[in-house]
Design goal:
globular; single chain; 5 helices; alpha+beta; five-stranded antiparallel beta barrel
Length: about 170
């Protein structure tokens, strides 16, 4: 992971080129008790520090990451959201997502703290099986999204399901 400190957006404009253009960039923000954007899981290809409150992390095409956003005002939480996204290749069809450039294939999107918390618990359960959530079958994230939207309990991701996914992926190559 490369870390680079850059003073301003104007100075960042020179950081283009093919390597940067091939990546999916996610802007992370942390302002205590106000705005928190963070990555729950994912393998960052590079990181750029903008200032002490902002940084940009980048992901290679076909990599999966979970992007969590939380915001509040003086009275209450105004945004709780988690999106599990697969980074896309340049020129591929994709969905747009705030703070994600150019966007990605959104595998799961949950809004509202109860659903976000449920997804975080599901991720924890997958990690408890010693499975990296980055490698979970994309179909499982779609399944979790659909079941939560229907207010139903998603199926548990198991080692057997994971093994079947890995074999299916190898066979399709």
């Amino acid at each position: 992971m490369t870390t680079r400190s850059t003073p301003s957006a104007a100075d960042r404009s020179h950081v283009t080129g093919r390597a940067r253009d091939a990546l999916t960039h996610v802007e992370l923000i942390w302002i205590e008790k106000s705005i928190e954007y963070w990555i729950r899981f994912g393998r960052e290809a590079q990181q750029e520090i903008i200032n002490r409150r902002r940084r940009v992390v980048s992901f290679t095409p076909d990599s999966t990451f979970a992007f969590v956003r939380w915001q509040s005002n003086d009275y209450r939480t105004i945004l709780s959201r988690i999106d599990i996204v697969c980074a896309v290749h340049r020129g591929e069809a994709h969905q747009t997502l705030a703070s994600v450039q150019p966007g990605g294939d959104i595998l799961l999107s949950a809004k509202g703290w109860p659903k976000v918390e449920r997804v975080l618990r599901i991720v924890d359960a997958i990690e408890a099986l010693d499975i990296d959530p980055v490698h979970v079958a994309p179909d499982h994230w779609h399944h979790v999204h659909n079941r939560l939207a229907a207010r139903q309990e998603p199926r548990t991701y198991t080692r057997a399901r994971h093994s079947a996914w890995l074999k299916r992926r190898r066979a399709s190559r």
